[in-house]
């Protein structure tokens, strides 16, 4: 088995991917963190490194003889300073790959986002859908995609890019906390058309995809969409309600144009008051939850990917304290 470094090991996705690797019997797994976590996952070797410091990354790769990198770490939406999107997501990726070249790393799998597509025109969106990132986060991730392809192909590193939709799982700090608080308070609206669907992915399925792509042996770097399930938005809220409060709550519907207008106003007001920080909700976020937001995963499935986590499993892992077992 290869010696794997997982960046972003303290985050929701990183922790889930590490749980997946441990369950599959991987022994030489290294989780890169900026500081040691209090609740470490058994059989994981934690190493301290910072994407913005190439020397610290070089030290991690060299001392631990890393063969493969699963790059998950990123500056995401929640209250991130504007400059950090490019500094962490683009420049940090550059530092990581440059260090990987110097240390002879053989393969890299890069976690990107389906938000690089922007407004979805053809649904479900395939990897050939036109690219039009709208927010600072999605623009920085797409720029990092381009950089990853260029540097890996120039230096003979095998790699793949995984475009990830809405992530739900334990330790999620973005989508789930907002929704669960609103559900508990009985003020969670059904946004947009009741039957519009959203693609959701659990970290365990991301781990499976990374495992497949890590060994696919292709010289040319390609992009792959991933999802665990495509759920009607209304059904997603109902399942969350069932897990949290055990019964159906008051329902009310808010048309998408109203949601978009409210989110746009909030975004504008936030930029006015806090010009250096990304707002918690914005127009891009409104599109993700208020419109059809699903993605074609056939390309990944042709390599053997089969999602293991169903909607009920994902919600249960997200809202309960117990760690959901890897199937």
Helix/strand/pairing category: alpha/beta
Q: Please tally the helical runs, counting DSSP H or I stretches of 4 or more residues.
A: 11
Radius of gyration: 19 Å
What proportion of the residues form beta strands (DSSP E)? Answer: 15-25%
String of helices and strands? EHEEHEHEHEEHEEHEEHEHHHH
CATH fold-level name of the domain at 4-173 and 199-229 and 293-308: Rossmann fold
Percent of residues in helices comes to: 40-55%
| Unreliable segments of 5+ consecutive residues | none
Distance between the termini: 20 Å
Number of strands: 12
| Biggest beta sheet summary | 7 strands, parallel
> What is the overall shape?
globular
Chain-averaged pLDDT: 90
Overview of the structural elements:
- With about 325 residues, this protein is of the alpha/beta class.
- It has a domain of about 220 residues: NAD(P)-binding Rossmann-like Domain (Rossmann fold, 3-Layer(aba) Sandwich).
- It has 11 helices and 12 strands.
- The radius of gyration is 19 Å and the shape is globular.
Topology:
Layout lengths: L3 E4 L4 H12 L5 E5 L11 E4 L5 H10 L4 E4 L10 H22 L3 E7 L22 H20 L2 E7 L1 E2 L7 H10 L5 E2 L5 E5 L1 H12 L7 E4 L3 E4 H13 L7 E2 L1 H18 L9 H8 L7 H4 L9 H9 L8
Parallel strand pairs: 1-2, 1-4, 2-3, 4-5, 5-6, 6-10, 7-9, 8-12
Antiparallel strand pairs: 9-11
Helix pairs in contact: 1-6, 2-3, 3-4, 5-7, 7-11, 8-9
Based on the model shown, name its key terms.
Rossmann fold; alpha/beta; globular; three-stranded mixed sheet; seven-stranded parallel sheet; about 325 residues; 11 helices
């Amino acid at each position: 088995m290869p010696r794997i470094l997982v960046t972003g090991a303290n985050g929701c996705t990183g922790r889930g991917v590490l749980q997946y690797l441990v369950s599959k019997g991987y022994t030489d797994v290294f989780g890169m963190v900026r500081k040691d976590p209090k609740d470490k996952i058994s059989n994981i070797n934690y190493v301290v490194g910072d994407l913005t410091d190439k020397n610290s990354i070089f030290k991690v790769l060299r001392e631990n003889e890393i063969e493969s990198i699963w790059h998950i770490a990123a500056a995401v939406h929640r209250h991130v300073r504007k400059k950090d999107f490019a500094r962490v997501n683009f420049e940090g990726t550059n530092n990581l790959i440059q260090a990987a070249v110097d240390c002879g790393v053989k393969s890299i799998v890069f976690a990107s986002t389906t938000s690089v597509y922007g407004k979805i025109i053809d649904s479900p969106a395939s990897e050939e859908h036109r690219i039009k990132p709208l927010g600072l986060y999605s623009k920085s991730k797409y720029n990092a995609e381009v950089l990853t392809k260029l540097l890996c192909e120039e230096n003979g590193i095998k790699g793949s890019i995984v475009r990830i939709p809405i992530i739900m799982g334990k330790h999620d700090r973005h989508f789930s906390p907002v929704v669960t608080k609103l559900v508990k308070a009985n003020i969670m609206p059904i946004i947009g058309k009741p039957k519009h669907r959203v693609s959701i992915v659990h970290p365990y399925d991301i781990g499976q995809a990374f495992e497949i792509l890590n060994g696919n042996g292709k010289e040319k770097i390609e992009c792959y969409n991933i999802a665990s399930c495509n759920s009607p938005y209304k059904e997603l809220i109902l399942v969350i309600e069932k897990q949290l409060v055990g019964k159906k709550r008051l329902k009310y519907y808010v048309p998408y144009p109203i949601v978009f207008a409210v989110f746009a106003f909030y975004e504008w007001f936030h930029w006015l008051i806090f010009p250096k920080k990304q707002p918690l909700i914005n127009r891009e976020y409104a599109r993700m939850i208020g419109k059809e937001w699903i993605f074609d995963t056939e390309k990944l499935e042709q390599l053997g990917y089969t999602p293991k986590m169903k909607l009920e499993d994902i919600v249960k892992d997200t809202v309960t304290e117990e760690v959901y077992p890897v199937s």
